[in-house]
Amino acid sequence: MSSSPLLPIQTDRLVLRNFERTDIEDLSQYHVLPAMQRYAFTQTRDRDQVPAALKIMSGQVSLQRPGDTLTLAMVRKGDNQLIGHVSLNWSDSTAGQGEVRFMINPSHSGQGFTEEALGALFDLAFEHYHIHRLLARCDGRNHHSIKLMQKLGMRLEAHYREHALFQGEWDEELHFAILDREWMRSTKVKDLPARHRVA
After folding, report:
1. Could you give the 3-state DSSP secondary structure of residue 145?
2. Strands (E), the chain
3. pLDDT confidence bin for 199, thresholds 50/70/90
4. Which of 27-36, 94-103, 138-147, 155-164 is the most confident on average?
5. Which domains are seen in the chain, by residue range?
6. What pairs with residue 133 in β-bridges?
């Protein structure tokens, strides 16, 4: 497995890059929201904990061994505003398993930014890191995330009902997955243009 990807990655409207110290204010706008904490690799309960989260994510720059995470800031072109981030975790080397997670500032959701970023992250996972299978989890009540997973060609593999308490309520967690060959085939069938390029 290759270690460090060539960054930044550019999509039509985004630049995907490593986190920087100057991202702290934009990160604070969404990372402390309670709804964001469920699938966060680095949890924060208030703004005082954001610097520590930023430090951790700033160090997540490559995948070198199982358990490593790569986190990329989603920066909007034009105004260079950080609007969210995507993460790739290398969970198993023998079977080539990975997990993706994502967060976006709610004020920028519903505009296709997350789909754009995840498409580039999937390419990176399958083509650069040679991951065999990607997993993504989402709340069973989050219809936007469900539609996003389906749009990306992922299939529902599991539905866990009331398996954990989150913020005092039973959760409904869905697991979606896609194989490398399925992703490659879907991009060819759709005849998609190049989704990203290295700057």
Report:
1. helix
2. 9-10, 14-17, 69-76, 81-92, 97-104, 133-139, 155-166, 169-179, 197-198
3. very low
4. 94-103
5. 9-190 (3.40.630.30)
6. 97, 179
Under 8 Å between Cβ of 47 and 68 = no
3-state secondary structure of 63: coil
Q: pLDDT of 26-84, one tens digit each?
A: 999 999 998 887 777 777 878 999 999 999 999 999 999 999 999 999 999 999 999 99
Q: Residue ranges of the alpha helices (H) in 32-179?
A: 50-58, 113-123, 143-151
| Sequence-separated (6 or more) residues with CB below 8 Å from residue 22 | none
Please tell me the distance from the alpha carbon of residue 150 to that of residue 84, in angstroms, as a whole number.
20
Rounded Cα distance between 60 and 98, Å, is 15
Going across the sheet that includes 155-166, the strands are 155-166, 169-179, 133-139, 97-104, 81-92, 69-76, 14-17, 9-10, 197-198
Give SS3 for 116.
helix
Residue 21: partners with Cβ closer than 8 Å, 6 or more residues away: 54, 58
* 106: preceding bond cis by omega (within 30 degrees): no
**What are the tokens at 62?**
């490559």
Q: Give dist(CA 154, CA 138) in Å, integer.
A: 12
177, two tokens: 């997955």
